[in-house]
Amino acid sequence: MGEHDKTTMKYLKAALTTACLVFSIAPAAISHAGAAEPFAMQKALPVPGEGGGEFDHFTIDLTGNRLFVADEGHAAVYVYDTNTNELITILGKGVIHSPHSMTYRADLGQLYVVDGDFKFGAVRIYDTKSYKLLKTIELPPMSDWSAYDPVTKQLWVSEIGIVQKKAESTVQVIDTSAGTILSEFTVDDNVITDLSIDPTKPVLYTALRTKSFIAVIDRMSHKTIATWPVTGCTGLGHMAESRRRNGFIS
After folding, report:
1. CA distances from 178 to 61, 117, 121 (A)
2. Domain 46-139, CATH class in plain words
3. pLDDT digits (tens, 9 = 90+) for 168-180
4. Global pTM exceeds 0.70
């Protein structure tokens, strides 16, 4: 990777680089005086290989007691047993380029890994019983963020347009049951980040990082029907919808 690519990657992703995996959250930086610490680290697990791990997304198998960890730095996905904290296996060594967001379908026993770097993009589908690669769905370079709709079984995956020197980015809609691409559309920003779906609503949300907006996209027409300005911060990344407050945390 050249210096320009390294600089661009730092701009695109603010990732934590560390040599161990921590299964709890550090104590809050701000707390009320005299109040008990709400979180405390219980254990740190070493990551296989040399230093340089760069964690991206995590996803969990609640019934199977497994945690899937995407490590961009080592180009692999780790599978941990959450009961014993032991490493079960490593997925994608020699195959995955740079793992990002993931979706686990418990009904199929399949893990969908979005894999993307400056020259390559794909969704890798793994069987989580045999841990074998079942299929690779090729996508544009630097495919990264995704959102899953458990009702339609569709996975929506974003690509970052700035990598290909485009003014817009693309989103691919994947049928996870068939393992095929259903459709593709563009979003008017060259860096789009997190995608979010509320299955009770017919819309997709995504963050337009360059323009500092959250876009509301109709999932039927693929048209942007509203944009919400974000002020007081830069570098939009992860989002979480608060149904109680009818809003977003970004």
Report:
1. 21, 25, 19
2. mainly beta
3. 999 999 999 999 9
4. yes
User: How far is Cα 182 from Cα 172, in angstroms, rounded to an integer?
Assistant: 8
How sure is the predictor about 239, in pLDDT bands with cuts at 50, 70 and 90? Answer: low
The residue extents of the domains of the chain are: 46-139
